[in-house]
């Protein structure tokens, strides 16, 4: 895979021929790298997913992108927005490539007709000094190369051309723009405009959902919004619950 054009968008873009996990490499080097530095590989051998799962991609079939964010002067409670902005950025980058577009499942999975084409893993740096936002994008895997029946690739979903560099550039342009918009909107603690965009893109809002909470409990209800800290608000028989982390399933009633 070749990467050509993305360097102008971010201060540091390093293409690794191979990496265990780009999130791990970037976290280890975060102290020496600037805000919005990016590591990318098309050959990630030890990818990690959310909730301790593996992220599996055969060499040369997928992109692994990790972006370092070092926002200055933000309260750590605001950090919950960044994974949502990454999901929105990726949905804008991938949406035009496939017939029928993409959907975002809260917090940041990007789906095509319900199947996962991109997963995002946001990890805090020690002392809340920043975050690493990792995104895995399934580009050209065949059905047999995907780990589950509910995952897909851009090629399988009907993208006519799958250019890794174009996907990378589009994502970085969208993410860096949203990130700068977020930082410059610090006068509006509710981030109303950005919140509206995230809610608009998030397919989960307005749907009946089951949320498997980190405690192991299940929450059944309807997703009705996103709160000031980026948490999903679920309305159930027990009232409203703000969910910071969990596995969401869209239910079809
Ligand atoms: N390349 C990949 N593409 C999609 N899913 C992957 C990939 N590699 C590993 N996985 C993992 O396979 C599982 C896919 O599960 P599934 O598509 O059923 O969605 P899910 O359980 O709702 O996922 P999630 O918990 O991320 O919302 C997830 O745990 C995901 O992290
Ligand atoms: O479980 C998920 O949905 C999140 C998957 C995140 C995968 C990406 S690939 C780039 C970065 N490096 C990793 O080890 N994980 C993330």
From TrEMBL:
Keywords: ATP-binding, Biotin, Ligase, Nucleotide-binding. The lineage of its organism: Bacteria, Bacillati, Actinomycetota, Actinomycetes, Micrococcales. It is an enzyme of class 6 (ligase). Pfam families: BPL_C, BPL_LplA_LipB. InterPro entries: aa-tRNA-synth_II/BPL/LPL (IPR045864), Biotin_CoA_COase_ligase (IPR004408), BPL_C (IPR003142), BPL_LPL_catalytic (IPR004143), Transcriptional_repressor_C (IPR008988). It comes from Leifsonia virtsii. Its EC number is 6.3.4.15. Residues 1-183 form the BPL/LPL catalytic domain. PANTHER family: BIOTIN PROTEIN LIGASE, BIOTIN--PROTEIN LIGASE. One of its GO terms (molecular function) is biotin--[biotin carboxyl-carrier protein] ligase activity. PROSITE patterns: BPL_LPL_CATALYTIC. This is biotin--[biotin carboxyl-carrier protein] ligase.
